[in-house]
C-alpha cells in the first residue's frame, strides 16, 4: 500500500511544480512527470491496458503542449554535470518502470496459452456476480470500471479544453 | 406554433415542423437507452449522444438562440460536471460502504428487471447526462466560434 501512497505524493509534487514554476517548458515537463507516475500507478494496480493508453496519450500530449506553448525558444543547452544527471535520472526511471511492469505482468497467464480464460470467466460468472443482464455493461461498469472512469475523465478534459480555447468572454477584440 | 412563426432564422417551416414532432421521441429514446443499459445493448454513452443529437437537431433547425433558450451553455457545463461527479461519487461510495473503489455496493436484485445490477443503472444515468450535455456544449461552443470568426 505504501507504494501507491508514494506515487500519489510524487504526482502531487509534480503538479505543484507545474503550477508554481516560472517557465512554461518546466511546467509542461512536470505535468508529463505527473502523467508518467500515473502510468506507473496503473501498472501497480495491475491495469496494463490503462497504463499503455496513459503513456501513449501522455507522450502525444507532451509533444503537442511543447509545440503549442512555443517553449522551444527558452530551451537552454545542457552540458557537463547536468548531462550525467539526466542520464542517471533516465536509468533510475527505467529501473522503477521495469520493476512495476514486472510486478504487473508476472501474474498474467502465458501469452495465448489458456485461450479465452478471462473472457470465459466473465461470460460464466458475469450475471451472477454483477446482476447485469447486459454483459458488456457489466464489464464496462463493473469489471472494467477504471477504464470507464478514465474515459469519462478524458472526455471531460476534452470538452473543458474546447470550451476554454473557443470561449467568447475574455477574448481580445480586434 | 409561436416558435415556428416568430422566428425567421434557421431552416424552412417544413423542417421546423418535422423537428418539432421528432425531437421529443428522440430524447425519450435516449433516456430509454441509458435507463436500460444493464438489460439491453446501449448504456450511458450512446444514450447521452442520442440526447445531444436531439439538441443539435434543434440548434440546426431553429438557430442558435432557440436552442440556447432550451439549454443554456452555463447550465450545460454545470450538468456536465454534475454527471461526471455522480459517477465519481458512486465509485467513492464503495469505499464508504466498506468495500473498495468501484465495489458494487447496492443489492443485485433479480436479473432482467430495471432495478437490478446494483449501481450500474445509476452510473449509466450519470454518464448519460455527462456525455449528452457535454457534446451539446462542445457543439454550441463551436457554433458560437464560427459566428465569431465571420464577424
Overview in brief:
Chain A has 174 residues and is mainly alpha-helical. In chain A, 75% of the residues lie in helices and 0% in strands.
Task: Walk me through the structure.
The complex is a heterodimer of chains A (174) and B (151). Chain A has two domains: 1-73 and 80-108; 112-174, no CATH class. The radius of gyration of chain A is 21 Å and the shape is flat. The model of chain A has no long low-confidence stretch (mean pLDDT 77). With 174 residues, chain A is mostly helical. Chain A has seven helices and no strands. Chain A has helices at residues 2-20, 24-44, 48-69, 81-105, 117-130, 135-143, 145-165. Chain B has one domain. In chain B, 72% of the residues lie in helices and 0% in strands. Chain B is built from six helices and no strands. Chain B has helices at residues 2-5, 13-35, 44-62, 64-70, 73-96, 120-150. Chains A and B meet through helix 6 and helix 7 of A and helix 5 and helix 6 of B.
